[in-house]
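Q: Sequence in, structure out?
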Amino acid sequence: MAVALVHDWLTGMRGGERVLEALCGLYPDADIFTLYHRRGSVSASIERHRIRTSFVQWLPLAGTYYRQYLPLFPMAIERFDLDPYDLVISSSHCAAKAVVPSGRARHLCYCHSPMRYAWDQFDVYFGPARAGHLASRWVYKPALARLARWDASTATRVHRFVANSAHVAGRIHRYYNRVATIVHPPVDTIFFHPADVAPDSHFLMVSALVPYKRIELAMAACDRVGAALRIVGDGPDRARLEAQAGRNVEFLGRLSDEAVRDEYRRALAVVLPGEEDFGIVPVEAQACGRPVVALGRGGALETVIDNETGVLFAEPDVTSLAAALGRVARQRFDSARISRQAQRFSRDRHVRQMREVIGETIAAPAGTRW
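A: Exactly. Output:
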């Protein structure tokens, strides 16, 4: 069976790339199709596959500003030639799910999120505060409206949707009118494990530096309670965030997995101020035995148990998050109990469930859609 794996872009090892990595383990001979690939940015188990990129790879400044070519993504993703493949598995949070498979192929989409730029995060990325009033209203708003219509219409190209959380399954039903099977992403709960070290008094964020992660909120809340904040990660918002940060905030950039694990273990708690579709970071933190302070919406409701493995706060504002930081600092947590919660999201469990779902999809009568 010829297998194609489709991923939006390859620029780092985040949650979506961990799913792709697991798929690469299931299909070591599969070809990978992606809009843009920054060589050396993903794991060796992904890089060893034959990786085919779109014309976005060769556009000016694509290495830094590939997201700015968003209006071209539909054309780019639809130009991939998938006729030779019997099974297509897309790993999609943007455009990958809209590839055009051959008539005989089965297309399973592991959906990390319906296209967030077009549906419910327009203001975060392209609102007047970020793009300017005129560009937001007259350029980006009509372009993203067209993308939303395109995104909904291309859902019929997928035979079966798999969602990374119940939260995303609800969004798939709302935007695509499709029912999704839920398979949580894989977390390396063997590598991430507790250590016999006493935590420090600072808080930690591990995040891409992009708008919807709400990093400003974490900085402001830590400033209010007089706590230090360490931030692991990089992204297009780094310069702006560093300019806003107080002396209590330290930006560490990209770190190795070993260094990230050490940061988890040393933190008083890991902070998740934005609404996540699932959220790999809070599970990795819990695997290391550390509590999580998370907004009580989205994927965090499926991974963090309030007052047992962390603290959930109700509103995405400084007052609510600062109160939660105070609660977690005063509370005593059982590291072993926290770590056990993370085992529910192990890599072995993910691979087993994905193998079952893929097998069911292949065995279903031709034309079956879930």
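The chain has a mean pLDDT of 94.
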